[in-house]
Amino acid sequence: MKKGKQPLILTKSQHHKRLNVFGWVNPLAGTHGMVRQEKGNTDGFLAMLKSILLRYQQVVIDLWVDQARWHKGKRITEFLSYHRRLAINYIPKYHPELNPQEMLWRTMRYEETTDTYYETFEELVSSVFKRSQTWKPKKIMSLCHFI
Question: Could you give the CA distance from residue 7 to residue 41 in angstroms, rounded to a whole number?
Fold first, then answer.
């Protein structure tokens, strides 16, 4: 290509698709979970909250989230009023480094997409979820800077 021109290389890449995953991490115990959703919206966030409540049935849950619009609003407030053992706290805007889940996302993206080609989008999805199941508590705690 001429200097200053971007080459166009046709591939069978799945770049037009997006994997929407909501996740949570308990950095003290080194556990985490992921819930795949069709869209990154309030419905997806509520589904993740329900999965957390199922996993931790006998404890009070103090959840820290960023200030994405789907983490707030009337439906979230109503859900929290019904599930009083769950409290949501908000991380200051523009500080993803304070969110331990971001460390997991960054590592997952690196481990699963660097120098890797997936024939289909579903192969990528499968690989991401399999990888997350292999992470041991010590690794999760380390990624969250808790050890």
Answer: 35
